[in-house]
Amino acid sequence: xxxxxxxxxxxxxxxxxxxxxxxxxxxxxxxxxxxxxxxxxxxxxxxxxxxxxxxxxxxxxxxxxxxxxxxxxxxxxxxxxxxxxxxxxxxxxxxxxxxxxxxxx
Length: 105
What we know:
This protein has helices at about 10-15, 30-45, 60-65, 95-105; strands at about 1-5, 20-25, 50-55, 75-80, 80-90. The chain is of the alpha/beta class. It has one domain (about 1-100): Glutaredoxin. The longest helix is centred in the middle third of the chain and has 17 residues, at about 30-45. The radius of gyration is 12 Å and the shape is globular.
């Protein structure tokens, strides 16, 4: 999993070719922390088809705001630098994330 911050977000996500899943999370977000093991498991399963990355919003608050992240958890999928799908808040369940990945890989 690529750890994102304000310095590498553009290069790793917006300038990347292919699919990139970004997990926007925060230290105080318990649902975010609960999702993490599931996202790591999905990376093991689909990591050859889609790049997995995460952004602790405390390390890139402006980046998150620029990407339209208003609440957490927020899971976005980008294709060739363009956000094409997302799950937010209560919709961001392990099962829903896997379905979203399957739809695009």
